[in-house]
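General statements about sequence and structure are easier to judge against a single worked case. For one protein, we set the task of working out the structure tokens from the amino acid sequence alone. This step matters because it turns folding into a mapping between discrete strings. The amino acid sequence and the backbone structure tokens for this protein are reproduced below.
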Amino acid sequence: MHTIGEVAELLGISTHTLRYYEKEQIIIPLRDASGDRRYNESHLKWLHFVIKLKETQMPIAIIKKYASLFQEGEHTAAERLKLLEEHKEAIQQQMHTLYAADQMLENKITAYRVSIGK
């Protein structure tokens, strides 16, 4: 079991973020006898997933919806799948846009190098 501070350090996020995720019911930590938050390995895996979703620009509202569906149970699997498929499609579109921008920049950089003889 990990404390909120340990989890924040392990994941490279703030304790404020963890409290926010709890407030938004994205994660529900366990509590010890003193009422302090405790996180197990399952929580860590879930938080890694949430962080990846955030890194790929999934809106917090969609993450909340996904978390809520997950907490409802297995009968929501099709809805969760749809959310993830839609997000994957958005990521692929982002990747296409970034690749096109990268190619344009590469062409411009090459042109400058040629023009200055570098």
